[in-house]
Amino acid sequence: MNIKNHILNDLNSFSLVKSPNVGGFFQTGLPDTIVLHYTAGPSAQSAIKTLTSPSESVSAHIVVDRKGKITQLVPFNRIAWHAGRSRFRNRTGLNTYSIGIEIVNAGRLKKQDSDFISWFGKKYPIEEVVEATHKNEQKPSYWHRFTLDQLNSVYKLCLLLADNYSIRYIMGHDEIAPGRKIDPGPAFPLEEIRNQVLFNSAQ
């Protein structure tokens, strides 16, 4: 997989579905940040439908499905609308600095008897559930587990982006919008992926 004209260039490992929900071009030297999200939805299809709908003011550059398949929605030199109200260091409005990656995952789950249920009503088996405390919270709760295929795809994609753009930061949505957003949450190994990508890309 490589990048040509700001589009992934291997149709065997990704697909392209263009979203009309795009801003202008990044300024010189940008993007330098990757923001990781979960979709809080049941499937890649539902996420892509939302992120490409002209009636929705949202988009992201990438969607990664449960099997690790990558769909690109926005060229990497264009601004997507994924971060919303956000702040990091002396910056606000992280859309203008970052590539957004949406990972298909139900997010926080609620336990009812022996079932683990998403906000949209889907039940998940215990094998897909992690009990953990969010970094911005005090009490543990239940979270949908990311798949190994997803984690491998996200790592490889972040490394590819770091090799092609001036990536200095890899952030969770919950880090740039604390109190407003909780994704990608404690089931996602953010520190591990961040450290590995930034270390390896610096070699």
What is this structure's SSE topology?
Layout: E1 3-4, E2 7-8, E3 14-16, E4 22-25, E5 33-38, H1 44-51, E6 62-64, E7 70-72, E8 78-80, E9 87-88, E10 91-92, E11 98-103, E12 108-112, E13 115-117, E14 123-124, E15 129-133, E16 140-144, H2 148-164, E17 169-172, H3 173-176, H4 190-201
Parallel strand pairs: 3-7, 5-11, 5-17, 6-11
Antiparallel strand pairs: 1-2, 4-8, 6-7, 9-10, 12-13, 12-16, 13-14, 15-16
Overview of this protein structure:
The chain has 203 residues and is an alpha/beta fold. The chain has a single domain (3-105, 147-201), classed as 3-Layer(aba) Sandwich (Lysozyme-like), CATH 3.40.80. It has 4 helices and 17 strands. The strands form 5 sheets. The protein has a 6-stranded mixed beta sheet, sandwiched between helices. A 5-stranded antiparallel beta sheet has the order 14-13-12-16-15, with no helix packed on it. Strands 1-2 form a two-stranded antiparallel sheet. Strand 13 (115-117) and strand 14 form a beta hairpin. Helix 2 packs parallel to helix 4 (190-201). The mean pLDDT is 95.
- Write down the secondary-structure element order: EEEEEHEEEEEEEEEEEHEHH
Q: End-to-end span in angstroms? A: 20 Å
CATH architecture: 3-Layer(aba) Sandwich
Number of strand elements: 17
Task: Give a concise summary.
The chain is an alpha/beta fold.
Descriptive labels:
203 residues, alpha/beta, Lysozyme-like, five-stranded antiparallel beta sheet
